[in-house]
Amino acid sequence: MQARKEQLAAAVWNTIVEKGIGAVSVRTVAETAGVAVGSLRHVFPTRAELIEFSARLMIDKVSDRVAGLEPTGDERADAVETLSQFLPLDAQRRAELEVNLALIAETPALPELRGIRDDATRALRAACVRLAERVRGNTVSFEEALAGRGDQRRGATLHALADGLALHLLVDPAAEEEALAIVRAQIDTLAET
Amino acid sequence: MQARKEQLAAAVWNTIVEKGIGAVSVRTVAETAGVAVGSLRHVFPTRAELIEFSARLMIDKVSDRVAGLEPTGDERADAVETLSQFLPLDAQRRAELEVNLALIAETPALPELRGIRDDATRALRAACVRLAERVRGNTVSFEEALAGRGDQRRGATLHALADGLALHLLVDPAAEEEALAIVRAQIDTLAET
DNA sequence: CCGAAAGTAGCACAGATGTACTACCATAAG
DNA sequence: CTTATGGTAGTACATCTGTGCTACTTTCGG
């Protein structure tokens, strides 16, 4: 059952990447998954449920990958490695990003997606804040600690930078090296100021 | 003629914002524009042309607004003002961003959009590089000048930051102040290092 | 005035889409 | 063996989609 669901979700992702979110219909998905429409509808009674599940599963996959990273001890390198998980540096991550974008674009039509999108954004934001804290070794000034906004803001900056770079790499994959250099520079700036 | 085209394009934008790109069909657009399908098809013989024109017109509008900004002499404030034009700080700019996102999501289905998207990205990038140059007053080190990458990279950072913040403001419009603070901080960092 | 050109509208068609409904098949509990 | 349960598949239908085609109206140069 769970296997069928994941198989169908994978078909959704493939369709999004190859033909766009507009081509995701019960029929196209059923066909690329190699099952009948009736079977698909037995698992996902409605199109919205199909897309909703696919979206959440994709986000969980990314979360798991990030959670599974093993710290090497070099905090700056670890931070770069973590942020790299959100950049489209290979086919897998590129597909994830495209699916994510398609989901955002589909939100007006499927309001149920809004919650999923918000969860994902919050989780990524929190991860970036933790990254900022770790890299800086908790050297927060008294005033900042009082306001409780020092690492929050640093995390937000990291977060925005990562998402922006991801977007640009999608348009121009050749800028990979530049993007990584920018991430490294930002981490270094964070650590040294 | 040109007026009709712009009227139709506006209808496309409205539909995207309210019901998502998936709801953009010749019929829905014709209806929200208050014209008959046949009339629409007289102006835009095909759905692709309709969307393509709407996309380009929207990008041109943003370009014109940015180009129309008058320098105040305070280069840092001007830079912040320019970057703010790409953040969803009001309904107008929010709509622009949503349309942009929808266009990216639709690219797999309409390859013609790729060129438009690339043009827009390049233009924004170039603007960010110019911003970086101006704020720094051309104080580039010898090595950087040799490599020709100093302000390029700074511009790319600014660009990524702006797009990332825009994305996040779309999800959480309440973070407006934080986003502006981040932009200001980045400009200051650029000017002082 | 008038005829050509351009704009507007409507109809028709083939195909796709979401969904309801029924039928078949497996496995396992009684 | 029987029966119930859950997975699989196929058909049917109303609606929406893009597009081709024809007809009407307006505008305007001669």
Question: How would you describe what is shown here?
Answer:
- Chain A has 193 residues and is mostly helical.
- The first copy, chain A, has a single domain, classed as Tetracycline Repressor, domain 2 (Orthogonal Bundle).
- Chain A has helices spanning 2-19, 26-33, 37-43, 47-67, 75-84, 91-106, 112-136, 142-147, 150-171, 176-192.
- In chain A, helix 4 crosses helix 6 and helix 7 (112-136) packs across helix 9 (150-171).
- The longest helix of chain A is centred in the middle third of the chain and has 25 residues, at 112-136.
- Chain A is elongated.
- Chain A starts with a helix and ends with a helix.
- The mean pLDDT of chain A is 92.
- The A-B interface holds A 16-23, 98, 101-102, 104-110, 117-118, 121, 125, 153, 156-157, 159-165, 167-168, 170-172, 175, 178-179, 181-182, 185-186, 189 and B 16-23, 98, 101-102, 104-110, 117-118, 121, 125, 153, 156-157, 159-165, 167-168, 170-172, 175, 178-179, 181-182, 185-186, 189.
- Chain A binds a DNA duplex (30 and 30 nucleotides) through helix 3.
Key traits:
10 helices; homodimer; Tetracycline Repressor, domain 2; DNA-binding; mainly alpha; elongated; 193 residues
Q: What's this entry about, in short?
A:
Chain A is mainly α. The first copy, chain A, contains ten helices and no strands. The model of chain A has no long low-confidence stretch (mean pLDDT 92).
